[in-house]
C-alpha cells in the first residue's frame, strides 16, 4: 500500500456532516449523547455552528426558528428514543407553522433492532405525523442524496419539517471516501405564479369592494413579500391587519394598519378580505360568522393548493408564491389605476374604533396602582424598545396583550406561540434569533417577553443563553400563575387549612417566585421589579449592557386581566 487515495476511509458521521454542509446548512442545535456526539463534532469541524441546549424540545424550537428567519432549515440533532421523542414537540410546532426544519435522530444499532436495544423506538414511523418526509438512509453512501432531498423538501412547496434517522452503527462505520458522491446544493424553491384570469378576477373583486381588508400572515413574512404588499396597500389605499407573526411585514404604525380595530370592526364588517399567507384556522376564527359577515368574499393567496377553500368557499383563489402573486396584482392596478376612497364610511368606522380602543389601553396603562397591570408594563417596555429589535413572546395574557402594545416595524421580527399555540417556545426562539443576529445583524437586540408559566417550560435554557453569552433581555411578566395566581398572603393563609395539593387552585404557581435568580446563577443580570420606576431603570440597564444577558422579573397584579371586550366571546379566544 503506497497511501493510495482510494484506501482513505471516512466515518458515517463525517459523511453526514459534509452532506449537510453541501446543502448550506449553517446551524445545528441539539443535545449530544450516544450515538450522535461524533456527528456534532464533525459538523463543527466543517464550520457548522453547533449550539448545545438543555432539552431537545427547546433545541428543536430553536432550529425551526432559524428556518423561518433565514429561509434555510436549521438542524436539530438528538439521541435515540427519548431524545427523539422530546424533539417531536418541536417538529410538530414547526410543521404546524409551515417552517423548514431538519431533525436528525440517532437510533439503535440495526443488528439489535426488535431485540429491545438501548433506547430502541420506531423513530421513522413516529416522525411521520410531524413531518413532510421521514426516512432512514439505506446505507452511508445514500446519506448525501437523502440529505439533499430532506433539505429540498423542507423548503419547496409549503415549508415543513423533515426527519432523518441515523442508526448508531452508521456513525463510526468507516467507508472508502471514493464510494461517497456528495450532491450539489439544491436549487432555491421554484417560484410559481397564479393563473392570469384569477388575478384579473381578484383585482375586479377588490375594485368593487365596499369594505375591503387585507390580512397579512406569517406566510407573507416568510415569502419576503414586504415590498410588494406595502406598495399595494399604499397605491390602493387599503386597510390591512397583520396576524400575530405577520406583524412588521408592514410597520405596525403604518397609517393603514387597522390592528387596533381588529375583531369588532375590521373582521366583523369587511365585505372583501384578501389573505396573504394566513390560514382560516382558529387564529382567524375559521372565516365564519359570527366573526365575519356571512357573505364576505375571501381572496386567498397561498402556495399550498390544499389550503384553498378550507372552511369557506373563496371568491377567488390565487395559487402561487405570495411575492410573485402580489406583483401580478400590482400589475393589474398599474394598468388601470384605482384606489379605495380614503374618506369612505368604512375608513371612518375603522378609525373611530381604533381611537376608542387605543384610548382604553392608554387609560389602563396610566393606572398608578400597584402591583402593576399588563398594560402599564407593556407601555413602559415599548417606550424603550429599539426599533429593530426582535420580539419573542409567549404566555396567555402576556402574549395577547403584549402583541397589542409592543410594536414591530420590520418583517420576521416577531416569534411567538404560533399556529399550534405552543408554550415553551420562547427561550429556544430567542437563542436562535440571537445567534442569527450575531452573524447577520450584529448589535440587534432580542427581547423575550414571557409569562411566568411560559418561562417555566424551558427555563433551564437560561444556562444555554449564559454559556454562549447571548445578550438577550428576558422579561418574565409574573402574575404567580397560569392565567392568574394568588398573592403571597393568601397563599400562606390557604396553607393553614391543609396541603397545597388539596387546596391550591390548579392555575397557581409559587407566589413571588424569584425567577431573576435563575439568570444570576449563571452570571447574567437579574432584576426583581415591582414598580414602574424599577422597571424603567432595569430595562434601561439591560438594554445598555450588550455584554451579557438579563432577566427582569416583573411582578404584576395576580388577578390582572385584559381590558373589557365588546363581545363576551372575545375574552375566551386567543385573539
Ligand atoms: P398566520 O399564522 O400568520 O395566520 P399561517 O401559518 O396560518 O399564518 O399561514 C401561512 C400560510 O402561508 C400557509 O398556508 C403557507 O402554505 C403559506 N405560505 C408559506 N410560504 C408561502 C409562499 N412563499 N407563498 C405563498 N404562500 C406561502
Ligand atoms: Mg402567569
TrEMBL record:
<dbReference type="InterPro" id="IPR012001">
    <property type="entry name" value="Thiamin_PyroP_enz_TPP-bd_dom"/>
</dbReference>
<dbReference type="InterPro" id="IPR011766">
    <property type="entry name" value="TPP_enzyme_TPP-bd"/>
</dbReference>
<dbReference type="Pfam" id="PF02776">
    <property type="entry name" value="TPP_enzyme_N"/>
</dbReference>
<dbReference type="GO" id="GO:0042802">
    <property type="term" value="F:identical protein binding"/>
</dbReference>
<dbReference type="GO" id="GO:0106359">
    <property type="term" value="F:2-hydroxyacyl-CoA lyase activity"/>
</dbReference>
<dbReference type="InterPro" id="IPR029035">
    <property type="entry name" value="DHS-like_NAD/FAD-binding_dom"/>
</dbReference>
<dbReference type="GO" id="GO:0005654">
    <property type="term" value="C:nucleoplasm"/>
</dbReference>
<comment type="pathway">
    <text>Lipid metabolism; fatty acid metabolism.</text>
</comment>
<keyword id="KW-0443">Lipid metabolism</keyword>
<dbReference type="InterPro" id="IPR029061">
    <property type="entry name" value="THDP-binding"/>
</dbReference>
<keyword id="KW-0276">Fatty acid metabolism</keyword>
<keyword id="KW-0456">Lyase</keyword>
<feature type="domain" description="Thiamine pyrophosphate enzyme TPP-binding">
    <location>
        <begin position="398"/>
        <end position="554"/>
    </location>
</feature>
<keyword id="KW-0576">Peroxisome</keyword>
<dbReference type="GO" id="GO:0030976">
    <property type="term" value="F:thiamine pyrophosphate binding"/>
</dbReference>
<dbReference type="GO" id="GO:0005777">
    <property type="term" value="C:peroxisome"/>
</dbReference>
<dbReference type="GO" id="GO:0001561">
    <property type="term" value="P:fatty acid alpha-oxidation"/>
</dbReference>
<feature type="domain" description="Thiamine pyrophosphate enzyme central">
    <location>
        <begin position="200"/>
        <end position="329"/>
    </location>
</feature>
<feature type="domain" description="Thiamine pyrophosphate enzyme N-terminal TPP-binding">
    <location>
        <begin position="11"/>
        <end position="124"/>
    </location>
</feature>
<comment type="similarity">
    <text>Belongs to the TPP enzyme family.</text>
</comment>
<keyword id="KW-0786">Thiamine pyrophosphate</keyword>
<keyword id="KW-0597">Phosphoprotein</keyword>
<protein>
    <recommendedName>
        <fullName>2-hydroxyacyl-CoA lyase 1</fullName>
        <ecNumber>4.1.2.63</ecNumber>
    </recommendedName>
</protein>
<dbReference type="InterPro" id="IPR045025">
    <property type="entry name" value="HACL1-like"/>
</dbReference>
<dbReference type="Pfam" id="PF02775">
    <property type="entry name" value="TPP_enzyme_C"/>
</dbReference>
<dbReference type="GO" id="GO:1903512">
    <property type="term" value="P:phytanic acid metabolic process"/>
</dbReference>
<dbReference type="InterPro" id="IPR012000">
    <property type="entry name" value="Thiamin_PyroP_enz_cen_dom"/>
</dbReference>
<dbReference type="Pfam" id="PF00205">
    <property type="entry name" value="TPP_enzyme_M"/>
</dbReference>
<keyword id="KW-0479">Metal-binding</keyword>
<dbReference type="GO" id="GO:0005524">
    <property type="term" value="F:ATP binding"/>
</dbReference>
<dbReference type="GO" id="GO:0000287">
    <property type="term" value="F:magnesium ion binding"/>
</dbReference>
<dbReference type="GO" id="GO:0006625">
    <property type="term" value="P:protein targeting to peroxisome"/>
</dbReference>
<comment type="subunit">
    <text>Homotetramer.</text>
</comment>
<keyword id="KW-0460">Magnesium</keyword>
Amino acid at each position: 500500500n503506497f497511501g493510495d487515495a482510494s484506501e482513505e476511509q471516512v466515518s458515517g458521521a463525517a459523511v453526514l456532516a459534509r452532506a449537510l454542509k453541501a446543502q448550506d446548512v449553517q446551524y445545528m442545535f441539539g443535545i449530544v449523547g450516544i450515538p450522535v456526539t461524533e456527528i456534532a463534532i464533525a459538523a463543527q469541524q466543517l464550520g457548522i455552528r453547533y449550539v448545545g441546549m438543555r432539552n431537545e424540545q427547546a433545541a428543536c424550537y430553536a432550529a425551526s426558528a432559524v428556518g423561518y428567519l433565514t429561509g434555510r432549515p436549521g438542524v436539530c440533532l438528538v439521541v435515540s428514543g427519548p431524545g427523539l421523542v422530546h424533539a417531536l414537540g418541536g417538529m410538530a410546532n414547526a410543521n404546524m407553522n409551515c417552517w423548514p426544519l431538519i431533525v436528525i435522530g440517532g437510533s439503535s444499532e440495526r443488528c439489535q433492532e426488535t431485540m429491545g436495544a438501548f433506547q430502541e423506538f420506531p423513530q421513522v414511523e413516529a416522525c411521520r405525523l410531524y413531518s413532510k418526509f421521514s426516512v432512514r438512509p439505506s446505507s452511508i453512501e445514500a446519506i448525501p442524496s437523502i440529505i439533499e432531498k430532506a433539505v429540498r423538501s423542507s423548503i419547496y412547496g409549503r415549508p415543513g419539517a423533515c426527519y432523518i434517522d441515523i442508526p448508531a452503527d452508521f456513525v463510526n462505520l468507516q467507508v472508502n471516501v471514493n464510494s461517497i458522491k456528495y450532491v450539489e446544493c439544491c436549487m432555491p424553491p421554484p417560484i410559481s405564479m397564479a393563473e392570469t384570469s384569477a388575478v384579473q378576477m381578484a383585482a375586479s373583486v377588490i375594485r368593487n369592494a365596499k369594505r375591503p381588508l387585507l390580512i397579512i400572515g406569517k406566510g407573507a413574512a416568510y415569502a419576503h413579500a414586504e415590498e410588494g404588499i406595502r406598495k399595494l396597500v399604499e397605491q390602493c389605499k387599503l386597510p390591512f391587519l397583520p396576524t400575530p407573526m405577520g406583524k412588521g411585514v408592514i410597520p405596525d404604525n403604518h397609517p393603514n394598519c387597522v390592528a387596533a380595530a381588529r375583531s369588532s370592526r375590521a373582521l366583523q364588517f369587511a365585505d372583501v378580505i384578501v389573505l396573504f399567507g394566513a390560514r382560516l384556522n382558529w387564529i382567524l376564527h375559521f372565516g365564519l360568522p359570527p366573526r365575519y359577515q356571512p357573505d364576505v368574499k375571501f381572496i386567498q393567496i397561498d402556495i399550498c393548493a390544499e389550503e384553498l377553500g378550507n372552511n369557506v368557499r373563496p371568491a377567488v383563489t390565487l395559487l402561487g408564491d405570495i411575492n410573485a402573486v402580489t406583483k401580478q396584482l400590482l400589475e393589474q392596478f398599474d394598468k388601470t389605476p384605482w384606489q379605495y376612497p380614503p374618506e369612505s364610511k368604512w375608513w371612518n368606522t375603522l378609525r373611530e374604533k381604533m381611537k376608542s380602543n387605543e384610548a382604553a389601553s392608554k387609560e389602563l396603562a396610566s393606572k398608578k396602582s400597584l402591583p402593576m397591570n399588563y398594560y402599564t408594563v407593556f407601555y413602559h417596555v415599548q417606550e424603550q424598545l429599539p426599533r429593530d429589535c426582535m420580539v419573542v413572546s409567549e404566555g396567555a395574557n402576556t402574549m395577547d396583550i403584549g402583541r397589542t402594545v409592543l410594536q414591530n416595524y420590520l418583517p420576521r421580527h416577531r416569534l411567538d406561540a404560533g399556529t399550534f399555540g405552543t408554550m415553551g417556545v420562547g427561550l429556544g426562539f430567542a437563542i436562535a434569533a440571537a445567534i442569527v443576529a450575531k452573524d447577520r445583524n450584529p448589535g440587534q437586540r432580542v427581547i423575550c417577553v414571557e409569562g411566568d408559566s411560559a418561562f417555566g417550560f424551558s427555563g433551564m435554557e437560561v444556562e444555554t443563553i449564559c454559556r454562549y453569552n447571548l445578550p438577550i433581555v428576558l422579561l418574565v411578566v409574573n402574575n404567580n400563575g397560569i392565567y392568574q395566581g394568588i398573592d403571597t398572603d393568601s397563599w400562606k393563609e390557604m396553607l393553614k387549612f391543609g396541603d397545597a395539593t388539596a387546596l391550591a387552585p390548579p392555575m397557581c404557581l409559587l407566589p413571588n417566585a424569584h425567577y431573576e435568580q435563575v439568570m444570576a446563577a449563571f452570571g447574567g443580570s437579574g432584576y426583581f421589579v415591582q414598580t414602574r420606576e424599577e422597571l424603567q431603570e432595569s430595562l434601561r440597564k439591560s438594554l445598555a449592557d450588550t455584554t451579557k444577558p438579563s432577566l427582569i422579573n416583573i411582578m404584576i397584579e395576580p388577578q390582572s386581566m385584559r381590558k373589557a371586550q365588546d363581545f363576551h366571546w372575545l375574552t375566551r379566544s386567543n385573539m
